[in-house]
């Protein structure tokens, strides 16, 4: 649990860094506007080129309205991009619900880490995340490409991480949280695709935001 708490603190720090970049970008835009108003076209172009990497990073950010999901998804999007993984998502969730942030962090971070590891073994690298509310339950579905190799022990799925000492810990942590929240988790796979489906009961809510890519 201490490690999970530390991980969530790191995610929060990452989110703060992103907010800082966004704030600075507004100042950069003001500088560019000033150059253009003074007809200093070359200076404006030079400024844009120097901060192009920052602009691309901001343009890839996801805002679902739910702070915990935003922090996690943006961090994992960054990791996916670094590893040349296509990440698609379709999310329709409330900005708040009664699943504790730490529990949601454990679920999403472990599922994403396993997916990113699994895609490293194949040429067609993709991850697809779906989140929505179904009959007062939070539905999470995470699919990824993989090499068709499934490791099991006593009918339990194990992580595909290279470090054998950590096999199964991530999935076991996810299952522990889902059991505590009275939810369910199922696995589906074929030779090219692995999918985890999760349902967890939540309090009734009417406000939701949708994003997709």
UniProtKB/TrEMBL annotation:
Coiled coil: none annotated. Pfam families: HATPase_c_5, SPOB_a. GO terms for molecular function: identical protein binding. Residues 6-61 form the SpoOB alpha-helical domain. This is Sensor histidine kinase NatK C-terminal domain-containing protein. Signal peptide: none annotated. Residues 102-201 form the Sensor histidine kinase NatK-like C-terminal domain. CDD domains: HATPase_AgrC-ComD-like (cd16935).
């Amino acid at each position: 649990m201490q490690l999970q708490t530390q991980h969530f603190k790191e995610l929060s720090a990452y989110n703060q860094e992103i907010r800082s970049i966004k704030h600075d970008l507004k100042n950069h835009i003001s500088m560019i506007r000033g150059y253009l108003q003074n007809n200093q076209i070359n200076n404006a172009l030079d400024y844009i080129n120097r901060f192009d990497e920052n602009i691309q990073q901001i343009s890839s950010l996801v805002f679902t309205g739910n702070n915990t999901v935003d922090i996690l998804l943006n961090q994992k999007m960054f990791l996916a991009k670094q590893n040349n993984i296509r990440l698609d998502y379709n999310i329709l969730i409330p900005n708040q619900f009664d699943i504790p942030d730490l529990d949601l962090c454990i679920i999403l971070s472990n599922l994403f880490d396993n997916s990113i590891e699994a895609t490293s073994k194949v040429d067609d690298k993709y991850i697809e995340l779906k989140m929505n509310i179904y009959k007062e339950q939070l539905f999470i579905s995470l699919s990824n490409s993989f090499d068709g190799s499934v490791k099991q022990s006593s009918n339990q799925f194990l992580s595909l991480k290279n470090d054998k000492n950590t096999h199964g810990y991530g999935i076991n942590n996810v299952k522990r949280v889902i059991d505590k929240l009275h939810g369910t988790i199922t696995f589906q796979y074929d030779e090219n695709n692995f999918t985890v489906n999760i349902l967890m009961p939540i309090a009734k809510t009417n406000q939701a935001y949708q994003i997709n890519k």
